[in-house]
């Protein structure tokens, strides 16, 4: 990341909807979210439940507070969501043996299997949406969005609870890219 001061990008003469990062991100979210939700209409999970399972998948996020920040849910709706996931056997809640006030969340084998079963459907959606982009462009997009998210999180005036996982959510998908290119792509995704 750059450490020197950068001339501001936006000015009164160039700021418009067509180049507003906030507007473009909001429109992408507004367009993609209903399509993602539609992927789960005939599934056992809602899109919000899927997001919860994926976020818990690698075991790094274990508290409701960390989960709330990493999936952008408020505490009340998250409690109901977790209750549903526990009731359906996808997630467990366990009290810490050392501090009874602490409740940890984790996936059950059923929850883990659900992530692995539905991941190809989600990947197919994203691969279709990104089909007009090169792998390098997708890597750049991921890198820039990650940096933007970290920058926005740092402006919140509190300790960050963002945990960006690099653990695959599904069984390995056969790669058609040569090994050298895959290594270069993986290296480009790492955020400093």
Mean model confidence by pLDDT: 83
**Tally of distinct domains:** 1
The dominant shape is: globular
What's the CATH architecture? Orthogonal Bundle
What would you call the structural class?
A: mainly alpha
* Helical proportion, percent range: 40-55%
Helix segment count? 7
Q: Could you tell me the CATH topology label.
A: Arc Repressor Mutant, subunit A
Assigned CATH class: Mainly Alpha
Number of strands: 2
CATH homologous group name: Winged helix-like DNA-binding domain superfamily/Winged helix DNA-binding domain
What amount of the residues lies in strands?
A: 5-15%
- Tell me the radius of gyration: 19 Å
Low-pLDDT regions: 171-192
SSE pattern: HHHHEEHHH
Distance between the termini: 7 Å
Strand order across the biggest sheet?
Answer: 1-2
* Largest sheet properties: 2 strands, antiparallel
Question: Could you explain the architecture of this structure?
Answer:
By secondary structure, this protein is mostly helical. It has one domain: Winged helix-like DNA-binding domain superfamily/Winged helix DNA-binding domain (Arc Repressor Mutant, subunit A, Orthogonal Bundle), CATH 1.10.10.10. The chain has seven helices and two strands. It has helices spanning 21-39, 47-56, 64-71, 75-87, 109-129, 135-154, 179-189, and strands spanning 91-95, 103-107. The protein has a two-stranded antiparallel ribbon with strand order 1-2. A hairpin with a 7-residue loop joins strand 1 (91-95) and strand 2. It starts with 20 loop residues before the first helix and ends with a helix.
